[in-house]
């Protein structure tokens, strides 16, 4: 059968793409209605039916809002009760056998149950959103098990709204999945492409039968480096789906985002799909490509309104870009650069922002307005195309970088100084920093903000909470304690609130995973630390115990990564300013007698550019910022760092580069896979691979913990090993934490006995290495 690459112009009976659109919309609700509904269901306070109704109300509110704002054909299936990748796995019946008996299979996969651990969760490309990693093997029996995308179309139609369903594209779905445990060597989920395409074909037919004109297939994986085999998969997928007769399928819009399509552009251009989406914020390089003209027969959905930040769009620049494209592509439609999932709902909710700053901002609803305004301007603009690709660049540093401060002594020298100073037992047990954030503390913080309680009262409550955490750790027998971070609403927002140059929102929530959200601070000015931030709390915590209490800071890369950052200064200069603020805090903690300081960088890998060619440069200045923040530490001050959501190879490169003395990492959730990495041999620093997956309410049993720790001890000399959870405990309850830490301490005591031999021999090793 011959494909028809240009259905729009050749067959005018097929409806054109609307002139303005968005790729997706926040789903948590303007007042986090979804969060409340989920947590109420999980706590047994409401039924699944009530949860489903809450979801339905949110979808209705979204479609009404978007049509009120003037969007003709809003997207549907952008809603999810937990995660859209999980929705896709569920829809395809890619449900591993161990979940099938659960009461609620969907949430068992997302969160685990008492009997079964959840699926792995990891970062969605370079964002702070997390998706659930599907497990696919040769045994996965794909079928269309759920018709959510079709149902949502019908649901919207009842409200008089016709929508464009959004699906995760089959190639990205498989590339984001992992091979199930029993899969034969060499198997990758992409090997199942043909079977998945069978189900997608069936789904497209069902959507066409439902009267859908356009379907959006998201393929963000195509903006990262892709092998020839993967590019062949793209071709196979879209020749097959586009090859369905246009009476049997809706028109296909393949959207890319978070970067430029690279080698995937000519492949897609050659496939019988009717529209292609380009990210013209992060993927602007595409404008200079000669093969852009290969899109001449297609609708280009031009992502000129940035979906990853909250700054107003420069409408004139965007208009130039649209007019330039008009000369190159077929139809041109105005869109956001990606889904608006990554920005808060509505600026109108923010009453407290400085009016001068506020004028420069656009949240999701304002971005919808921009898209519509641009479509109007574009339609009214003269027909002649702009002929040169418009340039819009981030400013580069005009002055030389500020000097990098002096480095610390080499690690082996520091290790000796620290061992003498700290006198820790073998296999020290510690935690990552936060203890459960209780409703009481959150309520107290809300009451303080509302002026209902005094500063003194709030401080007393926080101190009581610190004391509770310290006493618990002492009682359970941990070796290096933490104060528990009760004074922090969030590890980034808290610092932003105490630094100059940041603004904080009241309702600017962005979903991070499931029901969990953050309010990313807005870094809009020059960053400076007017006064010490954590020193008072650290002093207080240390006064309660003879065991060392870690000072706890968030690193510069993570502060930048989890904020909305100004674009009128070179990113590198911004990093340096934040690094200097943290450096001042490290110095003050040290002066206050704190002997272990942890500077977390869980977002280090998140900001890693998706294309390998750009990664070395990024790592050099991200790492530079970290070292700038920490190199003020004396040799005997032990610097810890914590990384989560990274894979092994990335972590190991990063750990060496960061030059911290001890690194705690997430590993329980992936069964300590990091230790299989060949680079682990010869690893020379302290390492704490997590033995407790804190993302799930499950409490790990002692043998589970010893099992993981033994795996660690087979690879690493015992005197380098720390025992700790995967990440902070703030999302857990005190009951769960007490049970899990008890088991961790018990398991460690057993290990200390069996590994005494190992310990004495590795001690010798270390002495030799120092010479
Ligand atoms: N920024 C950031 N990104 C991160 C992480 C992180 O810790 N921070 N961790 C990783 C995993 N992501 C996470 C993201 C959020 C949360 C999380 O727990 N968020 C909390 C909100 C934290 C917060 O801002 N708390 C505030 C506000 C709390 C609140 O909801 N207050 C009530 C009122 C108080 C009450 O009566 O309960 C309200 O505003 O309605 C505070 O404690 O002050 C939540 O969604 O529940 C956890 C992990 C990766 N990315
Ligand atoms: C997402 S990494 C979290 C690190 C932080 N210190 C905590 O324990 O919560
Ligand atoms: Zn973490």
From TrEMBL:
<dbReference type="GO" id="GO:0009086">
    <property type="term" value="P:methionine biosynthetic process"/>
</dbReference>
<feature type="domain" description="Cobalamin-independent methionine synthase MetE C-terminal/archaeal">
    <location>
        <begin position="427"/>
        <end position="749"/>
    </location>
</feature>
<comment type="function">
    <text>Catalyzes the transfer of a methyl group from 5-methyltetrahydrofolate to homocysteine resulting in methionine formation.</text>
</comment>
<comment type="pathway">
    <text>Amino-acid biosynthesis; L-methionine biosynthesis via de novo pathway; L-methionine from L-homocysteine (MetE route): step 1/1.</text>
</comment>
<feature type="active site" description="Proton donor">
    <location>
        <position position="695"/>
    </location>
</feature>
<feature type="binding site">
    <location>
        <position position="485"/>
    </location>
    <ligand>
        <name>L-methionine</name>
    </ligand>
</feature>
<keyword id="KW-0677">Repeat</keyword>
<feature type="binding site">
    <location>
        <begin position="432"/>
        <end position="434"/>
    </location>
    <ligand>
        <name>L-homocysteine</name>
    </ligand>
</feature>
<feature type="binding site">
    <location>
        <position position="35"/>
    </location>
    <ligand>
        <name>5-methyltetrahydropteroyltri-L-glutamate</name>
    </ligand>
</feature>
<keyword id="KW-0486">Methionine biosynthesis</keyword>
<dbReference type="InterPro" id="IPR002629">
    <property type="entry name" value="Met_Synth_C/arc"/>
</dbReference>
<feature type="binding site">
    <location>
        <position position="727"/>
    </location>
    <ligand>
        <name>Zn(2+)</name>
    </ligand>
</feature>
<feature type="binding site">
    <location>
        <position position="642"/>
    </location>
    <ligand>
        <name>Zn(2+)</name>
    </ligand>
</feature>
<keyword id="KW-0489">Methyltransferase</keyword>
<feature type="binding site">
    <location>
        <position position="600"/>
    </location>
    <ligand>
        <name>L-homocysteine</name>
    </ligand>
</feature>
<feature type="domain" description="Cobalamin-independent methionine synthase MetE N-terminal">
    <location>
        <begin position="20"/>
        <end position="328"/>
    </location>
</feature>
<dbReference type="InterPro" id="IPR006276">
    <property type="entry name" value="Cobalamin-indep_Met_synthase"/>
</dbReference>
<feature type="binding site">
    <location>
        <begin position="516"/>
        <end position="517"/>
    </location>
    <ligand>
        <name>5-methyltetrahydropteroyltri-L-glutamate</name>
    </ligand>
</feature>
<protein>
    <recommendedName>
        <fullName>5-methyltetrahydropteroyltriglutamate--homocysteine S-methyltransferase</fullName>
        <ecNumber>2.1.1.14</ecNumber>
    </recommendedName>
</protein>
<dbReference type="GO" id="GO:0032259">
    <property type="term" value="P:methylation"/>
</dbReference>
<dbReference type="InterPro" id="IPR038071">
    <property type="entry name" value="UROD/MetE-like_sf"/>
</dbReference>
<feature type="binding site">
    <location>
        <position position="562"/>
    </location>
    <ligand>
        <name>5-methyltetrahydropteroyltri-L-glutamate</name>
    </ligand>
</feature>
<comment type="similarity">
    <text>Belongs to the vitamin-B12 independent methionine synthase family.</text>
</comment>
<dbReference type="GO" id="GO:0003871">
    <property type="term" value="F:5-methyltetrahydropteroyltriglutamate-homocysteine S-methyltransferase activity"/>
</dbReference>
<dbReference type="Pfam" id="PF01717">
    <property type="entry name" value="Meth_synt_2"/>
</dbReference>
<keyword id="KW-0028">Amino-acid biosynthesis</keyword>
<feature type="binding site">
    <location>
        <position position="666"/>
    </location>
    <ligand>
        <name>Zn(2+)</name>
    </ligand>
</feature>
<dbReference type="GO" id="GO:0008270">
    <property type="term" value="F:zinc ion binding"/>
</dbReference>
<dbReference type="InterPro" id="IPR013215">
    <property type="entry name" value="Cbl-indep_Met_Synth_N"/>
</dbReference>
<dbReference type="Pfam" id="PF08267">
    <property type="entry name" value="Meth_synt_1"/>
</dbReference>
<keyword id="KW-0862">Zinc</keyword>
<keyword id="KW-0479">Metal-binding</keyword>
<feature type="region of interest" description="Disordered">
    <location>
        <begin position="386"/>
        <end position="411"/>
    </location>
</feature>
<feature type="binding site">
    <location>
        <position position="644"/>
    </location>
    <ligand>
        <name>Zn(2+)</name>
    </ligand>
</feature>
<keyword id="KW-0808">Transferase</keyword>
<feature type="binding site">
    <location>
        <begin position="432"/>
        <end position="434"/>
    </location>
    <ligand>
        <name>L-methionine</name>
    </ligand>
</feature>
<feature type="binding site">
    <location>
        <position position="128"/>
    </location>
    <ligand>
        <name>5-methyltetrahydropteroyltri-L-glutamate</name>
    </ligand>
</feature>
<feature type="binding site">
    <location>
        <position position="600"/>
    </location>
    <ligand>
        <name>L-methionine</name>
    </ligand>
</feature>
